[in-house]
Design goal:
heterodimer; A: 307 residues; mainly alpha; B: alpha+beta; seven-stranded mixed β-sheet; four-stranded mixed β-sheet; 20% strand
């Protein structure tokens, strides 16, 4: 297993290299540079800035400087947020993203699976239909709509929760952003669970369990849950990478620090270093998460282990 | 017994803490984007200025109306030729670590600003200082050649290239703030980190979480620290204006520095008197390519300018009542009584359209040979609404408009390269002088995107800049403005408004043409 994990990690290096290289050059193809803006800078100042960030050197030389620094673990400076390097910004934002994304992730799993089980047990009855409607809402309502509605309702009308801000990490401050983030995943996980469980409940070993006279609860918990989770787990990889890379919309609307805004803002600002830094960071995160998913998968499904 | 004592001690401590916390007055300020830096030499946005201007102070500073008043300098003298300014620093001014602020700190800061290695974006604002431009562009390598000298620890002498009537105003700008020599030299680029940074303004930063907030606390070493009524300011990063308004309504913010324009009417009804809209020294305009046929024909430019119904843009399209612009310089610039307004300003709109039509047909355009143009704007809901409205105003003239939008970076990069027919642009004054706006049409200036080029105009601006008498200079500048406006060098559309929402708890907030409101002048009262 360890050997497998190690090989998987190793195989990402060429992928990473290709991504960095492609990203580096494609970024430069985009018109406009980090120092273009509403206020054009005098030529002398622009040259000073370009020299400061090595942007006056031939592109290929810049590339080698960047890759060279990368080997030393240096993601370089950010052209826009000048008081923090790219690595520092990622480190500052990461804990917030991990907390909000992590809680949303756990919430999605627990609520999603629970809703899926309820949906199966009460199949085609009222609870199932009610959940179906909620799931549909979770899937089709975009977060930029759900977030302001929740803010208006819970923040301004009922005054139960703060409208935004981090508030030192107080639970009340993360309830709304976590809910907004988790909603579509709760919906999807509950659908996946329901679908898989209905199938499992019809399989022979469940019928055997039933014929032995086991209670419904014991059938679900002891026998049906584990095989049900296989499709859910394969969804968890992408879900985790989605949640843990942060969300531009949620961070912007709730005014939370986090890394979700970095990629898009950096791309719009032509903050080359920051874009590359986030690409590398996201790639590593996704690779690691996928690896974890594969390992969990093997644990859940003996057929995968045997292969 | 012992336990009881400990218990009462804890209670007492808790009480003291609680009362201290209750008496500390914190202003919660919505501040828009994330600041790029706290270093006054590395910033360029108004959201950065709000913080920098609270934590640093130049020789002069802004009063509540954003007019220059003595700051770190107690007083000054100006030589008769207007070239040499001698500043006497206040007695006993200190950095937030208790070290004295000296004339040497100002020399160090100005040299650092102009040093090409600093790569200060806004260095050019202080180009009136002798040799500043030459040093910043690398023509002179000796930083000591800069016209800023310390006579002694408390006396600073600044020599200018040419008389600059707005210089005292320019010194309120963050590019003119001192930096702590002792801290910058010891820590280099790390000097700006929280915990290391020391400042000389009323407040000093104590916390910064990118993407969330910057917190500043009263600087006890500030000379007017006793007069400060607010102990701490929290500047929140939040670019979503609707979300900001909701947080304001929930009482999480005391001041909003921007609001969604489509909510203005709602606010007028539901939060009366809180949404503050005031003229702002800025011009929203359309650049028109003066070099490219047919736009090199002044008649074509005039026809396009005349046929815009400016009166409906502010009240109806934007909804906040922006003031229609018929001059290049917004009204109210220091020393410039009334800007020159175009002669056709007061014609009924129907007559304007009729004249525009005849101008276009004179230029050879007709229904069979319509004028076609591309109108560029940077992606933004308001820019789009205005562009759509204006193209429909041009339609009756038979003008066929292609709307073309790009993101801001691309927009300005292409404008810089002169790729445009008609394009949206805006300019906010950096200092209180008409020169700010008139420079936009000078042929040698890079941000003259429309490449308007008239030697007479350039000569007038140069002539004005050599005149020290304020009224005489204004008369020459007015002549230049008239020349450019009569030739329709560009299309002014409206003067910007500042948009703030101010809680009734905040006292001392005064609307001004620069939208600068230093916390020093504000007060928070209990309702």
């Amino acid at each position: 297993m360890l050997n497998y994990a190690f090989r998987r990690m190793l195989s990402t290096i060429p992928v990473l290299w290709i991504a960095v290289t492609a990203c580096f050059f494609i970024l430069r193809l985009a018109p406009g540079g980090p120092f273009d803006g509403e206020r054009p800078l005098p030529e002398a100042v622009k040259q000073n800035l370009n020299a400061h960030y090595n942007l006056d050197k031939p592109l290929i030389e810049q590339y080698f400087i960047y890759v060279g620094n990368l080997f030393k673990g240096d993601l370089g400076p950010s052209f826009i947020n000048q008081d923090f390097t790219v690595a520092e910004q990622l480190m500052v934002g990461l804990p917030y993203t991990l907390i909000v994304g992590g809680v949303a992730f756990l919430l999605s799993i627990v609520v999603g699976i629970a809703a899926g089980i309820v949906g199966t047990l009460y199949r085609n009855r009222l609870p199932d239909y009610a959940l179906g409607v909620l799931v549909l809402a979770g899937l089709v309502l975009p977060n930029f709509l759900v977030a302001p509605i929740l803010q208006l309702f819970f923040g301004l009308k009922l005054e139960w929760l703060p409208v935004g801000g981090w508030g030192g990490g107080a639970v009340s401050h993360i309830v709304l952003p976590v809910t907004v983030l988790a909603l579509p995943h709760v919906a999807r996980i509950s659908r996946l669970t329901r679908g898989a469980m209905i199938e499992v409940m019809h399989s022979n070993f469940i019928r055997t369990a039933r014929s032995k006279g086991l209670s419904n609860a014991s059938i679900v918990w002891r026998h049906a849950l584990k095989p049900t989770l296989t499709p859910v787990v394969s969804y968890l990889g992408p879900a985790a990478s989605y949640l843990l890379t942060g969300s531009l919309v949620v961070e912007t609307i709730f005014g939370l620090p986090g890394i979700g805004r970095y990629f898009i803002n950096a791309a719009l600002n032509r903050d080359y270093g920051m874009v590359l830094g986030t690409v590398i960071f996201y790639m590593l995160l996704i690779v690691i998460l996928n690896l974890i998913v594969d390992i969990v998968y093997a644990w859940l499904d003996p057929r995968v282990r045997a292969r | 017994m012992k336990l009881k004592l400990v218990h009462s001690l804890i209670c007492a401590a808790a009480l003291t803490l609680a009362s201290a916390a209750a008496s500390a007055v914190t202003l919660h300020m919505h501040n828009g984007a994330d600041p790029a830096s706290l270093d006054p030499h590395k910033i360029s946005g108004d959201w950065e200025n709000r913080i920098a201007g609270d934590i640093f102070e130049g020789l002069t500073t802004e009063n509540s109306a954003a007019e220059p008043i003595p700051g770190q300098a107690a007083d000054w003298t100006i030589s008769d030729d207007g070239l040499v300014y001698t500043f006497n620093l206040r007695d006993g001014i200190k950095w937030s670590d208790g070290e004295p602020v000296t004339a040497g700190d100002f020399v160090f800061a100005f040299q650092r600003l102009m040093n090409p290695a600093t790569a200060a974006k806004y260095a050019y604002l202080q180009y009136p200082i002798k040799n500043a431009e030459a040093i910043n562009s690398g023509d002179i390598e000796d930083l000591n050649a800069l016209g800023v000298k310390a006579i002694d620890d408390q006396t600073l002498e600044i020599t200018l290239e040419r008389p600059t009537p707005y210089f005292l105003g320019a010194l309120t700008h963050y590019t003119a703030y001192p930096v702590p020599t002792h801290v910058v030299e010891a820590n280099e680029s790390e000097w700006i980190k929280i915990g290391t940074i020391v400042t000389n303004g009323p407040y000093t930063p104590t916390d910064w979480v990118p993407g969330s907030h910057v917190t500043t606390e009263k600087n006890e070493h500030y000379y007017a620290a006793d007069e400060l009524k607010i102990d701490s300011v929290k500047f929140y990063v939040l670019e979503d204006e609707s979300a900001a308004l909701k947080r304001y309504r929930a009482g999480e913010f005391d001041i909003l520095t921007e609001f969604p324009t489509d909510q203005f009417e709602w606010m007028e009804e539901n939060l009366p008197g809180q949404a503050q809209v005031a003229p702002f020294a800025g011009l929203y305009y359309y650049v028109i390519n003066n070099q490219k046929p047919p736009f090199d024909n002044p008649d074509v430019r005039k026809a396009l300018s005349m046929s815009i119904n400016r009166e409906v843009i502010g009240p109806q399209i934007l909804g906040t009542g922006e003031i229609p612009a018929y001059s290049w310089v917004p009204p109210g610039m220091a020393g410039y009584k009334e800007p020159y307004t175009v002669a056709w300003k007061d014609l009924p709109y129907g007559e304007k359209v009729a004249e525009a039509k005849s101008l276009l047909s004179k230029a050879g355009f007709s229904a069979d040979n319509p004028l076609k143009l591309q109108l560029r704007y940077n992606t933004n809901e308001n820019h789009k609404r205005i562009a759509v409205a204006i193209s429909s105003m041009w339609k009756p003239l038979g003008v066929e408009v292609e709307l073309y939008n790009t993101e801001t970076k691309v927009h300005y990069e292409e404008l810089n390269r002169g790729i445009l027919e008609v394009a949206r642009a805006g300019w906010l004054a950096d200092y209180n002088d008409p020169d700010n706006f008139l420079n936009l049409l000078k042929s040698s200036v890079k941000y003259n995107y429309g490449r308007y080029s008239n030697p007479d105009y350039d000569a007038l601006i140069d002539k004005a800049n050599a005149i020290t008498d304020v009224d005489e200079r204004a008369a020459v500048l007015l002549e230049a403005e008239k020349l450019a406006m009569d030739e329709s060098a560009g299309i002014p559309i409206y003067y910007y408004l500042s948009r703030n929402v101010v809680s009734p708890r905040v006292k001392g907030f005064e609307n001004n043409a620069f939208d600068i409101h230093r916390t020093r002048w504000l007060e928070l009262v209990e309702e």
